[in-house]
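Risk mitigation, structural track. In case the binding assays with magnesium ion fail to produce interpretable data, a predicted complex structure has been prepared as a fallback.
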Amino acid sequence: MTSVNKKTVEDIQVKGKKVLVRCDFNVPFKDGKIADDKRIKGALKTIEYLKNNGAKVILCSHMGRPKGEFKPEFSLAPVAVRLSELLGCEVKMAKDVVGEDAMAITANLQEGEVALIENVRFHKEETKNDPEFAKKLASMAEIFVNDAFGTAHRAHASTEGVSHYLPSVCGYLIQKEISIMGAALEEPKRPFVAILGGAKVSDKIGVINNLIEKVDTLIIGGGMAYTFFKALGHSIGSSICEEDKLDLAKEILDKARAKNVNFLLPVDNVIAREYKEDSEYMSIYSDSIPDGWMGLDIGEKTQELYSKTLKGAGTVVWNGPMGVSEWEHFASGTRSVAKAIAETDAISIIGGGDSAAAVETLGYADKMTHISTGGGASLEFLEGLELPGIACLDEK
Ligand code: ADP
Ligand code: MG
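Fallback model:
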């Protein structure tokens, strides 16, 4: 478990210091333009704090997968342009990562000035966490700030390696992630309800195993429900099922019983003939699926049951849609769960790319306590694993 007691930018003296900040500027592009600048906006709080407190701010990030060589389409230059608009000041863009240009620009920074060095993944040493490369990055600065939660589960040179050579603290984004998720896992307001969905049990085994030790109720939906159905001896038609995970599903069911965890599975389903957006479909008031049909969403009774359970929760953690929510006919389960969570007074935490996207599309984002910004990283956090990009930061 990653310690949540990490120093933040507010716990160190930054005035006059060169501060290297690892951001997550891995933004989507469309037709050569930034399609969504949410990640750039998300980084502003930490950057502005450092700027306003007289630091010399050196930003770095990865973008895409340039595989260790310079490729212009993966340049961070467009990010520098957008960032300078948002900050209302010049952001000096270096032409390289640890080359002459980056060294010259960062060496000459004045207090309150901001520079961005090129995509750290232009060097293959980045993902290898090469110590010499990390040392070069660190040599530009006097303090390291990690604020890239989405890559904190990777030990790369710019997320972990640099911390060996500099005092290292977290920025506001990481601090928010670890304080909210950490508190929910360590001292949850009860009842603590976790609701897990998505396609496969195998993607979520770690999360289930960790949460089953902590929650009062565990709710299952989505494709993985059918592996549990089959383990219980129900018929599942042609629903998605992991045959090699049936024993594991049984073990989880036994564990829930032994720990007195209220374990909820769908009591009815929306079924379809084919795995297709426009397939023939219908609702059935049953927890078994007829031959020739597959379960693609939880049914109405299940939605009521889950909503009622969520309503009384003190803490809710949600990961994974309740059905194939990309397709309108199979989206209502996910929609009703999102609504129920939005309407509770519970501390609500959404982790996982698809569930976070669903909450945002439905317009409930501002009703949630916290939507985690890192898909893989938030899953590993919920699994109780230690994230190297956070573990390496200085303790308070
Ligand atoms: P998250 O990104 O929130 O962690 P996952 O990636 O684990 O969620 O799961 C999302 C995927 O699960 C979606 O692509 C969705 O279509 C799929 N899915 C959900 N329910 C079913 C189902 N009943 N059958 C097949 N696929 C499903
Ligand atoms: Mg996903």
